[in-house]
Protein 1
Amino acid sequence: SVTLPLGTPRVLLTMVAENGVEAGETAAVAPFIDIYMCRHGTTTWNLAKKWQGETDTDLADVGIEQARATAELLAARLQSVSRIFTSDLKRARATAEIYGERFGCEVAVD
């Protein structure tokens, strides 16, 4: 447990507010989480040197291999992953699903 000093940043107070803890009180605080951000793999349009913006393009074969390699790199460095968040674009979702398969965790599409 820790004592939250007066002037504790609002973000930390929000994290423990569910337990009814206020600044100056003692509380058991959950550990902070690490957030990793990864770009999607190379797409078919990347290879064609086309600008895709929000156009919904597929991963190229090399992009799939990049996602698998990144998943392995992360797996070597992280003990666990509880959830992966991704956009609904095919390239991002396909990349995230490769990560999710490697870590056996949920992929949340937003």
Protein 2
Amino acid sequence: WRSLRTNLSKYTCAFSDTPWPGDAPDFVGGSEVQQYLEDFASRHGLLDCLRTGCRTTHVERAGEGSGETAGSWTVTWETCQDGQKSSSSESFEFVIVATGIFSRPSIDMA
């Protein structure tokens, strides 16, 4: 949304090692948040780790025991390109679900 404004100030929604530019308004807009996150990801070499334009459809703890996928998470997502939906899955060692600062964390340490 072009008219989107955050409901948290730039002081609340900033990475500790990456302050917002001094001329950024207290309540930044959607395009400013996108640029901030893209700059952060680029600076820290994270762009190749990101998948944009996807909708996560399932997250599941993978097999127990030993082996390559033991203790990992299988994430399934959906993409839509030219009206065609496709589904992909991949295993990850960790999963972060970022739901906002007012949510109570639930950490699966198993």
Protein 3
Amino acid sequence: ALTAMQQVISFLVFAIFFSVAYFTPYKYTPKPLNTWFEVFCVVVFGCVFALNIALNNFSLGYISIAVNLIIRSCLPLSTFLSQQALALVNLYPFKPCRWKEITLMVIGVV
């Protein structure tokens, strides 16, 4: 129920922003999708996004909210580690290691 309420409120805020900004020079105009690959990518992204929310809600039936939050708080650290591992095999651009960022990520998990 909480996720659904967040989605409804987010949609309403976006709708208000969209309708107010429409009459200003800062009008939001989405980029048109020109190829079938772009359409495919948007559909896949939407499905993956919805699947992420569904699996997160499903997992709450099996683990406590505290464990769920601990797992989700580890994502920045695991993302950093996977980026560094992919950089070693030249599949991702190498970024220097900043100990302050890593320390903050670890503190966020603890």
Protein 4
Amino acid sequence: LHLRMKYPTDFQFDYEDEDEAEEEMYRTHLRKLYQRIVRFRPQLVLQFIGSCLSSLSQPLSATSPTEIEVALRLVFHFGEGRRPAPGAKTALRDGPFREIVIALHRSDL
């Protein structure tokens, strides 16, 4: 899932381009799938996020933008996927998720 969420290096965010519009629809499908998994297995997804973040090169400022972007999207969509709404507030009550958010804020990004 982590690897499939990365945008191709030649992606230009041109939604009028048919191929790129299809790519964006694919990303939407992956996001919805990920959020369903978050709702049913949030602790497992937190482990997955932790694994993805720990695999990034250090310092984070030296990591490729596509790697950072997908990792941040995983964190963001985790908050969106939590229930009850608003999910981000619910997720921030969770100690491990709160620690991930704090660590990202303290990083050199």
